[in-house]
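Record now logged for everyone:
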Amino acid sequence: MDTAEHSSLFFLLFLLIYSITMTGNLLILITVGSDLHLRSPMYHFLGHLSFLDACLSTVTVPKVMAGLVTLDGNVISFEGCAVQLYCFHFLASTECFLYTVMAYDRYLAICQPLHYQVAMNRRMCAGLAGITWAIGAVHSAIHTSLT
């Protein structure tokens, strides 16, 4: 199937999927941010994950959609490609490191329930989330420079 023949169909498909993804992530962020019962570390990390997922979709999908409506096919420069690669690696690797932190959070909650409130306080949650973002930035800088 040639994408040039069906570019408007693919554009609408990507637009639909992107809209659903952004709406879902926005609803998660609003729910976690507004409900006082969702102030636990698990939901704190879930909010970060939702934000990362929304940003990750925004890094790639609009450029794909632009490529579908552009006739000459030249939609990105070398510098733009490098920036997009860095952003993609940054967000994707930060998301993976955040999964590790979320697994550690669940491990503490299940295996050490009496120590959980002390070990996973607000300061620890913010520190762990910050570390995932910092490691993601360094990790993506290394991968982008090697590329």
Summary: Residues 110 and 116 are 9 Å apart (CA to CA).
